Amino acid sequence: MQLQRLLSITRKAIDEYAMIQEGDHIAVGISGGKDSLTLLYALHGLKRFYPQHFELSAVTVDLGFPGFDLEPIRELCGTMQVPYRVVASDIYQILFDVRKESNPCSLCAKMRKGALNQAVKEMGCNKVAYGHHMDDIIETMLLSLIFEGRFHSFSPKTYLDRMDLTVIRPLMFLNETDVIGFQHQYDLPALKKKCPVDGYTKRQYAKELVQQLNREHPGAKERMFHAILSGNIQGWPERNTYRKISGGDAHRLSRP
User: Fold this and answer.
1) pLDDT score at 10
2) How far apart are the first and last CA of the chain?
3) CATH number of 3-254
4) How much is the pLDDT for 93?
5) Of 230, 233, 235, which Cα lies nearest the Cα of 158?
6) pLDDT at 243
7) Ramachandran region, residue 219 (left: φ > 0; alpha: ψ -120 to 50; beta: rest)
8) Confidence at residue 254, expressed as pLDDT on a 0 to 100 scale
9) Helix, strand or coil for residue 55?
10) Are 55 and 24 in contact (CB under 8 A)?
11) Torsions phi, psi of 69, nearest 5?
12) Considering only CA atoms, which of 46, 122, 32, 115 is closest in space to residue 77?
């Protein structure tokens, strides 16, 4: 996938869910994987011409996994002139050495997000961008259906009132295959996953289930995503869609 296509799809999400306003300072949460690095490229590219001016920073919560080298990401941020902060933590030690968790994902996510959001506020940012894409949203919906008995997925934009911080997900219209293609096309310095339970989680089960359903029923993934967008999920912001008309003005089509 070329950079221009990435910027176009990212801007579609930002525009339709009003993710960016004038004067925002956005921190990109960098895990080290392909998704967050693709998001960094996207927002860095949009910053040059997006009509609402915004500042961009990046932050990584170092979970403490042995051999987790962030230097390639530090160099990338330096090349882009994006301020980059690394937050040291002992999350790995707490989860695997002290508590010896067999199912650490939920607690890990809670601790990681807490550390990330605190760092973002200390950096003076009012928004934090996560690299979740279309597949993540669909997989979360399936996990919610199967294990919680409700139709739900995380929102494109969420205001955290206790932190006075807004979470945005600008890659929501990208397939994971698009992200993989961009990673290869631009040789992103994505880091290998170090978590010992990676590949053995409920999310991995949901990922494989979506792939199976889409193989057996082509187009199933897109239909599930459409159901999410039009499902009036509690907590989701209103969606605006537009088309160009004569004179270059934008005309609102729908607000599903």
Assistant:
1) 97
2) 29
3) 3.40.50.620
4) 80
5) 235
6) 44
7) left
8) 40
9) strand
10) yes
11) -100, 115
12) 32
Residue type, 14: I
Note the pLDDT of residue 154: 93
Give the whole-angstrom CA distance, residue 244 versus residue 91.
49
CA-nearest of 10, 15, 41 to 28 is 41
> Quick check: 54 and 154 in contact, CB under 8 A?
no
pLDDT of 164 reads: 94
Low-confidence ranges of the chain (pLDDT < 70): 102, 194, 196-197, 199-200, 242-256
The predicted structure's pLDDT at residue 192: 79
What pLDDT score was predicted for residue 108? 82
Residues 6+ apart with CB under 8 A from 190: 32, 33, 34, 37, 183
Q: What is the pLDDT of residues 63-76, one digit of tens each?
A: 877 777 899 999 99
Residues 6+ apart with CB under 8 A from 130: 29, 36, 39, 167, 168, 169
Distance CA 58, CA 74 (A): 10
Phi-psi region of 124 (alpha: psi -120 to 50; beta: other; left: phi over 0): left
**What DSSP state is assigned to residue 160?**
E
- For residue 24 the two structure tokens come to 């925002």
Report yes or no: 61 and 108 within 8 Å, Cβ to Cβ: no
C-alpha angle 1/70/163, rounded to 5°? 85
Q: Which amino acid is at 189?
A: P
Structural domain boundaries in the chain: 3-254
pLDDT for 242: 59
| Residue in 180, 169, 182, 188 with CA at minimum distance from that of residue 73 | 188
